[in-house]
Amino acid sequence: MTTLLIVDDSPIARQILRKCLPNDDDFTVLEACDGRDAIEKFRQFRPAITFMDMTMPVMDGFAAIAEIRRMNPQAVIIAATADVQPKARKRIADLGALMLLPKPVSPGSIRDALSRARVALEGETQG
Amino acid sequence: MSDTRFSTTEKDILQELMNIGFGQAAADLAQVIGLSIELSIPDIQLFKVCELSRHMAEKMAGEQEFSLVEQYFLGKFQGIALLALPARSGKKLVSLFGLQDQCNWSSENLEMLEKEAMIEVGNILIGACVGKITELLNDVVLFSPPRMMIQDVRDSILPNHLFAPGSLAISLKTVFHFERKKITGQLFLIANQDSIAWLKTALNTFMEQYE
Ligand SMILES: [Mg+2]
C-alpha cells in the first residue's frame, strides 16, 4: 500500500490525477487544496509520494515544496503543474522535487512519474 | 434558446483549461523574450454582451491607462481575445525583444516599435493559450491578425457580427506579472453565446475520459 498526497487548488485537476492512477496498484490517496493544507496533511500522514501543483491560493507549490523538504529532506515530490516555463522548471528542481509533470497529466505520464518515484524511494531505503 | 448556465464543475474545468493554456503561453513567450511570467489563478465569468465595458472596467480597476491588443479566434470556440498591458509598458517590452540598441530610431518610429512589441506579445500569448485550450477540447480555430485597439477600454464594445446584443458572453481571465519588469497584464478570452453551448458539451466530453 502506497500513500499518495495530491495537492491542487482545482478539484478537477485532483480528479483528473486520481483517475490517471494505475488501477492495478494499491494506493491510499489523500488530497489537499493549497500549500498550507499540503504541509498539514504531509505532517500528519507522511505520504510516500506527493503530487504538487504550483499556482495555488494561500500558499503556492514552491513554498510548500520547500517546507515539506525541510520536514523531510527525502520527501518524494512530483510537481504536477501547468507552469512549464524554464524558470519554474529550475526553481522546482532547485527545491529538490523529483520531477516536473506537465499538465494535463495522462495515465502514461503518471505511470512514468510513479516508476521514477519508486526508484527514488528504493534508493532511500537502501541508502 | 440553449441552456447557458454553467455549473460549478464546468467552471472548474474551464478554469483548469485556462490555467494549462496560459501556462503553455507563458512558456512560449519566455522562450522568445527570456523572461518569466508569474502565473495566477484564472477567473471565469458569464456576463451580458452589452455589459462588456462594465465587466472590463471592474476587472481592470486601479490601473490608469491600458493598451489593448485584440485578436479574434474563430472556431466552434469563437470570440475575441484582449490583452491589456499598462500603456507605458511598450518601452520595457521593446528592450525585451532586444531592440533597445537601435538608438537611431526617431520618436515616431520608437512608438511604432513599442506598438509592435505589444502586438507580438499579444500574438504569442493569445495564440498559444487559445490554441492549447481548443486543442484539449478538440477544436481548431483560425486567428485574425492581432492589432492594437485605439479606443479607451471603458468605451469598448464587442463586435456585433460575433456578439449579438442582448446575448451572453463568457470571459476567461488571467492576471500575470513579468518578473523584474514590474509589468502586470491581463488576458481576457471572451467567447460568444454560440461558444457557450458548444463549450458545455466539449467540457463534459473532455471530462468523460477521466470518469
Ligand atoms: Mg492551480
Describe the secondary-structure layout.
The complex is a heterodimer of chains A (127) and B (211).
Chain A: E1 2-7, H1 11-20, E2 27-32, H2 35-45, E3 49-52, H3 61-71, E4 76-81, H4 86-94, E5 99-102, H5 107-126
Helix pairs in contact in A: 2-3
Chain B: H1 8-33, E1 37-38, E2 43-48, H2 52-59, E3 66-74, E4 79-86, H3 90-96, H4 107-136, E5 142-143, E6 147-149, E7 168-178, E8 183-191, H5 193-208
Antiparallel strand pairs in B: 1-7, 2-7, 3-4, 3-5, 3-6, 4-8, 7-8
The structure holds magnesium ion.
Task: Give a written overview of the molecule.
The complex is a heterodimer of chains A (127) and B (211). With 127 residues, chain A is of the alpha/beta class. Chain A has one domain: Rossmann fold. Helix content of chain A is 48%, strand content 20%. Chain A is built from 5 helices and 5 strands; from the N terminus they run E-H-E-H-E-H-E-H-E-H. Chain A has helices spanning 11-20, 35-45, 61-71, 86-94, 107-126, and strands at residues 2-7, 27-32, 49-52, 76-81, 99-102. Chain A has a 5-stranded parallel beta sheet, sandwiched between helices. In chain A, helix 4 links the parallel strand 4 and strand 5 (99-102). In chain A, helix 2 (35-45) packs parallel to helix 3 (61-71). Chain A is globular and about 35 Å long. Chain A starts with a strand and ends with a helix. With 211 residues, chain B is of the alpha+beta class. Chain B has one domain (8-208): Chemotaxis protein chec (3-Layer(aba) Sandwich), CATH 3.40.1550. Chain B contains 5 helices and 8 strands; from the N terminus they run H-E-E-H-E-E-H-H-E-E-E-E-H. Chain B has helices spanning 8-33, 52-59, 90-96, 107-136, 193-208; strands at 37-38, 43-48, 66-74, 79-86, 142-143, 147-149, 168-178, 183-191. In chain B, strands 1, 2, 3, 4, 5, 6, 7 and 8 form an 8-stranded antiparallel beta sheet that branches. In chain B, strand 3 and strand 4 form a beta hairpin. The longest helix of chain B has 30 residues, at 107-136. The model of chain B has no long low-confidence stretch (mean pLDDT 88). The A-B interface holds A 9-13, 15-16, 19-20, 54-57, 81-88, 103-104 and B 9, 12-13, 15-16, 19-20, 22-24, 26-27, 30-31, 36-37, 39-41, 136, 179, 207, 210-211. Residues 8-10, 53, 55-56 of chain A line the site of magnesium ion (MG).
